[in-house]
Specification:
By secondary structure, the chain is an alpha+beta fold. It has four helices and five strands. It has a five-stranded antiparallel beta sheet. Strand 4 and strand 5 form a beta hairpin.
Length: about 160
């Protein structure tokens, strides 16, 4: 196993079970509408925040990785991902790939209700044969609104090579 991959495995294993909270701030209608448009939506419930039937696109919430101010240049890896998005990999010469995602929606998202996300690295698994090993990291996230409670649970898998 390559040294950087071994280091990623050791770092990630040390982080299993560690809980991280991130404040995403309130969702803003202009951004949720822009997201719906980018998804090719034509449903007026997702595009008109003045309508009584307005809804936030269900996939908007799990797309949120940072608060309303986003990140600064130092927050990103050379490949464009956030440096801390895949636990244990920051600063290492590893390749990252999405390995699947499961989303469970609990209730609709409301505009202007401050959102937090609770993130936990659940597992680190070594896969593959000698010389072609990779890591499979499973991360769980719970998105929560201050007034409404849990909104969505997301289980993400990351492949680290």
């Amino acid at each position: 196993m390559r040294a950087d991959l071994r280091a990623a495995e050791q770092r990630a294993c040390a982080l299993v079970g560690t809980v991280e909270h991130r404040d995403l701030g309130p969702l803003r209608a202009v951004e949720t509408v822009a997201f719906a448009r980018a998804c090719g939506e034509t449903d007026p419930r997702l595009l008109d925040p003045q309508s009584a039937s307005f809804e936030v696109h269900p996939l908007y919430l799990p797309s949120q990785l940072r608060g309303p101010d986003g990140g600064v240049a130092g927050d990103y890896r050379a490949d464009g991902m956030f440096r801390d998005e895949v636990p244990g990999t920051d600063g290492l010469d590893v390749r990252l790939m999405a390995g699947g995602q499961t989303i469970t929606f609990h209730r609709p998202v409301r505009i202007d209700d401050p959102i937090t996300v609770r993130r936990v690295l659940d597992t680190v698994e070594r896969k593959g044969k000698p010389g072609s090993e990779f890591l499979l990291l499973t991360v769980s996230k719970t998105y929560r609104a201050r007034r409404a409670g849990d909104l969505a649970t997301v289980i993400e898998r990351f492949i680290v090579r």
